[in-house]
């Protein structure tokens, strides 16, 4: 009776792609991005999330998040150059699906229920995941000159 | 001659400050703001300029034949990346020599006044949609999609409403997360929703300070420790307020 969207064999990728696209684009609305960039915001978040889901099945969530954040940043830089829009527009909407909401919530939940011993590893995990996102963002500074050398047409803002 | 020079300096400085102020007030990153300000000054022939940008004020100084230092205060911050983009466009045009300081100032003032691209009601709908989608992404059930949508959308609406009533944003965040938690609990108890945890996680996402966090990290990396730390602190406090709100509801439940 209740469909669990993640396990349904026909749906997982299509469902995850659609959900992450809509979620990222909706966050674009919350951040008041220019209307013409909404679809690209959705794309950036969708691709990052799909990579994360793909990797998280095989490796730990932290490196998966790092890789996904890096992908989002690369895409955001690409879009920023191609469409002459500040990179923050695409990177922030794309990063949102990777924010460790679930883990942070579990950590908080265990504190509320006085299970402090469980909360510490969860909080540490949430911190690590946030750090992975931060590093992914930082690596964009490396990506920029690479893109320049590959000759992607750009204006420096 | 000297007064002309001074006047031009004044006008250019005004344009730089206004551009910086609009960007900071609407969610721009600190290094981008400083970069934009010095570029505008350079485009108008003032190559020796320094800008010091924090989330609460901007200092801008120009050296040279005539020199000036100006301060502008930033009293409130919200998120409007459309305005950041528009200011960016203006600064590009200035760089190409298309605008005089007068024209630039007028355009910037107009940007300051334009309303937000999406009305709060539309934003609440987007928040609702995002909440439902996050539920699915975090392996929630399709049956919980609508409860998450409702809790998330109404929670966001509560945020906007309470922020208008009380200027303290943290309080509005706290109340909004209490609303989200309460609705989620009510839905589950009424049998309308099933997995409480997933519903709450999904519907709380629109409240999460994503832009603040992203900018805090980027500022810290770029060496803007003052901005990075203060935005980081604000993001942390917001997350704390939200966590406390939910914890409060859960402890009662």
Structure characteristics:
heterodimer; A: 157 residues; mainly alpha; globular; B: 253 residues; 2 domains; 3-stranded antiparallel β-sheet; 10 helices; 3 strands
Overview of this protein structure:
- The complex is a heterodimer of chains A (157) and B (253).
- Chain A has 157 residues and is mostly helical.
- Chain A has one domain.
- In chain A, 73% of the residues lie in helices and 0% in strands.
- Chain A has helices at residues 12-30, 38-56, 61-83, 87-95, 101-112, 116-138, 140-149.
- In chain A, helix 1 crosses helix 2, helix 2 runs antiparallel to helix 3 and helix 5 (101-112) runs antiparallel to helix 6 (116-138).
- The longest helix of chain A is centred in the middle third of the chain and has 23 residues, at 61-83.
- The termini of chain A are far apart.
- The model of chain A is unreliable at 1-10 (pLDDT under 50).
- By secondary structure, chain B is mainly alpha-helical.
- Chain B has two domains: 2-113, no CATH class; 120-252, no CATH class.
- Chain B is built from ten helices and three strands; from the N terminus they run H-H-E-E-E-H-H-H-H-H-H-H-H.
- Chain B has helices at residues 2-25, 30-43, 81-95, 101-113, 120-137, 145-165, 169-189, 196-204, 210-221, 225-252; strands at 49-54, 57-62, 68-73.
- In chain B, strands 1-2-3 form a three-stranded antiparallel β-sheet, covered by helices on one side.
- In chain B, a hairpin with a 5-residue loop joins strand 2 (57-62) and strand 3 (68-73).
- In chain B, helix 3 runs antiparallel to helix 4.
- The radius of gyration of chain B is 22 Å and the shape is elongated.
- Classes of the chains: A mainly alpha (157), B mainly alpha (253).
